[in-house]
Write a structure and sequence with these properties.
The complex is a heterodimer of chains A (291) and B (360). Chain A has 291 residues and is mainly alpha-helical. In chain A, 69% of the residues lie in helices and 0% in strands. Chain A has 2 domains: 61 residues, no CATH class; 198 residues, MetI-like fold, CATH 1.10.3720.10. Chain B is 25% helix and 35% strand. The mean pLDDT of chain B is 89. The chains are: A mainly alpha (291), B alpha+beta (360).
Chain lengths: 291, 360
């Protein structure tokens, strides 16, 4: 105990901690501060980063079409952000759901069924993950646009995100399914469950922590992804990251609005992560079989 | 309750044959115990019966109806697993009612059935808990309850007590024995513990290396073992085996070996007539020794260790170079290192063929 206290009370340790905290929190604080500044204050070198007259104008501008009042500060209400937020939520949720459904079934098959090429398939799913999205960009764009006409549709983007996230989800869930004692499945079989009932009523509830972890991962990637989203989305299907970049033009960069959008962008994944992480508990098979 | 018949059932895992063709009939309403050392194929036999393993050849009949192509759930069986296999995400009531819920039994019926079985097993107060909150013994009861709720025709037990501590195991064994008498069901029970087998079984099937060595009532197996394996497996402490030569002298057969010379009973002398001058293995139960030297043929044993067990002690002794276990009343103390005289009840001796290990 005393050794630990000595270690953590050294000034160098605290200095390091403070450095790390500043590095982690600094940009976020700066973004938060800027989102409350007027454009004039942003560009005025005499106005400090954190000392200024705060305003809600930027948020009003971003949320103008979802607010219950029409803000006086906004001359023209641009509906882009509201639409993009809807798109982002829809695309992230749907692609997460599809990835999890396919992923858990694939993982179960790879773990429990004996078939030819099981090992190589299990390995190649992960290999797919090693390909950087930038490499996929051109071929995917070509195929999506010219062969299937999926460019600019939700289907196109969701399909790409599912394909991108599936390998990792399969890989994570495999390690969870391996831990489900086979006796449980045998017991369910003896109790009269068919293979689907065994899977949905016994295996799936037990690997809920794995599903939650995979969901957080998938949701965050789909939510933040820019490169493929930029290439494949149309005007009506753009996600928030794409919208933010598109709002930067040659004539006008509205930093306040961009920062406000950024702050709003960060909220849904935080909520999602908190909700999902409630499911991540240890000891998922406690009490099932004699250890 | 069907009569279950195994006909030439065999099982191989790849090139490894774990079960050579096996014939076995389990009678209606009988408590059958499959017993044998680890890896003797008893669990595999049970799992084949349960439908958890496919058989590689032969057929199983329920009342002359072949069932090997039926899925587990179509065989009307309930099974208790060695390591409980409780569903960790369901509470005890849900665990026990899982099979009934799958069958879409009305909720009211499920409740009464679960309640009845839970009360029978003294787990009625645990129904709202999760398996993780239960002790080993309680989990074992729940596993048992989950099978009993089913009302299946045949119950399968795969070493259900082997994970419990000794005291609890004894208690559960008694309860199982009680249950056996109240339920009119087929029960097939797999264990490696011969005490469980002896106390529970109407009929015991002793297996070794996938082959049935002998089947019969506990008494038959103890008194008339078919071969050396069964004789050594059944009974505790285990039977002593001594190399001996049969010698005919004074119109009697004598088993003579390193440190002993024991006359055989009249009946044995008659049946073993042709075996004079042959090398055999002599089997002596530890309980056949008596401190009263007049109670049987005299034998002198060198005491090595005395294992005190309470009213009884097990004496580890040497007869020549061979180790001999002797059951001994603790009330008459013995001194380690000395030589002791015992009387052997010769009518309890068994003689085994040295090559085939069959009892003669």
């Amino acid at each position: 105990m005393s050794v630990q206290t000595n270690k953590s009370s050294s000034p160098a340790f605290y200095a390091l901690m403070i450095c790390l905290i500043i590095m982690a929190m600094g940009p976020i604080m700066l973004m938060l501060a800027t989102s409350f500044k007027t454009n004039v204050d942003v560009n005025d070198v005499n106005v400090g980063s954190f000392f200024f007259t705060p305003t809600l104008r930027n948020y009003e501008a971003v949320l103008c079409n979802v607010l219950w009042y029409s803000p006086s500060s906004v001359d023209y209400c641009d509906p882009t952000f509201g639409r993009a937020l809807g798109n982002s939520i829809f695309i992230a949720l749907v692609s997460t759901a599809i990835t999890l459904i396919i992923g858990c079934m694939a993982a179960y098959a790879l773990v429990r069924f004996r078939f030819m090429g099981r090992g190589p398939i299990s390995m190649t799913t992960l290999l797919m993950r090693m390909v950087p999205p930038a490499v996929l960009l051109v071929p995917v764009f070509g195929i999506w646009t010219f062969q299937y006409g999926l460019d600019g549709t939700y289907t196109g983007i969701i399909l790409v995100y599912v394909a991108m996230n599936l390998p990792f989800v399969i890989w994570i869930l495999q390690s969870f399914i391996v831990q489900v004692p086979i006796q449980l499945e045998e017991a369910a079989k003896m109790d009269g469950a068919n293979p689907f009932q065994v899977f949905f009523m016994v295996v799936l509830p037990i690997i809920k922590p794995g599903l939650a972890a995979a969901a957080i991962f998938t949701f965050r990637i789909a939510w933040n992804e820019f490169l493929l989203g930029n290439a494949l989305s149309g005007r009506g299907t753009r996600t928030v990251p794409v919208t933010i970049v598109n709002s930067i033009t040659e004539y006008d960069i509205d930093w306040g609005v961009i920062m406000a959008t950024g702050m709003l962008l960060a909220i849904p994944p935080v909520i999602f992560t908190f909700v999902a992480s409630k499911q991540i508990i240890t000891g998922m098979t406690a009490g099932a079989v004699k250890g | 309750m069907p009569t279950i018949r195994f006909e030439q059932v065999e099982k191989s895992f790849g090139a490894v044959r774990v079960l050579p063709p096996l014939d076995l009939t389990l009678d209606d309403g009988e408590f059958t115990v499959l017993v044998g050392p680890s890896g003797c194929g008893k669990s595999t036999t049970l799992r084949i019966l349960a439908g958890l393993e496919e058989l590689s050849g032969g057929e199983i009949y329920f009342d002359e109806k072949p069932i090997s192509n039926l899925a587990s759930k179509e065989r009307d069986l309930a099974m208790v697993f060695q390591d409980y296999a409780l569903y960790p995400h369901m509470n005890i009531a849900k665990n026990m009612s899982f099979a009934l819920r799958l069958k879409k039994t009305p909720a009211a019926e499920i409740e009464t059935k679960v309640k009845r079985v839970a009360d029978m097993l003294n787990i009625g107060h645990l129904l709202d808990r999760k398996p993780a909150e239960l002790s080993g013994g309680q989990r074992q009861r729940v596993a048992m309850g989950r099978a009993l709720v089913r009302d299946a025709s045949t119950f399968l037990f795969d070493e259900p007590l082997s994970n419990l501590d000794a005291k609890l195991r004894g208690k559960m064994r008694t309860e199982l024995a009680e249950m056996r008498d109240t339920l009119d069901k087929n029960m097939v029970y797999v264990t490696h513990d011969q005490i469980e087998a002896m106390t529970l079984g109407d009929r015991i099937v002793v297996m070794s290396e996938g082959v049935i060595q002998q089947q019969g009532t506990p008494e038959q197996l103890f008194k008339e073992p078919a071969n050396k394996f069964v004789a050594g497996f059944i009974g505790s402490p285990t039977m002593n085996f001594l190399d001996a030569e049969l010698v005919s002298e004074k119109s009697k057969l004598w088993a003579r070996g390193d440190g002993f010379n024991l006359p055989l009973s009249k009946e044995m002398t008659a049946t073993l007539k042709g075996y004079s001058k042959k090398e055999v293995t002599l089997g002596v139960r530890p309980s056949s020794f008596s401190t009263d030297t007049k109670a049987g043929a005299p034998i002198e044993l060198r005491l090595v260790v005395s294992e005190y067990l309470g009213a009884q002690s097990t004496l580890v002794t040497k007869c020549g170079e061979a180790e001999v276990l002797v059951e001994h009343e603790s009330s008459s103390p013995v001194r380690t290192g000395g030589t002791l005289k015992f009387g052997v009840r010769t009518e309890e001796l068994m003689v085994f063929d040295k090559e085939t290990e069959r009892r003669l």
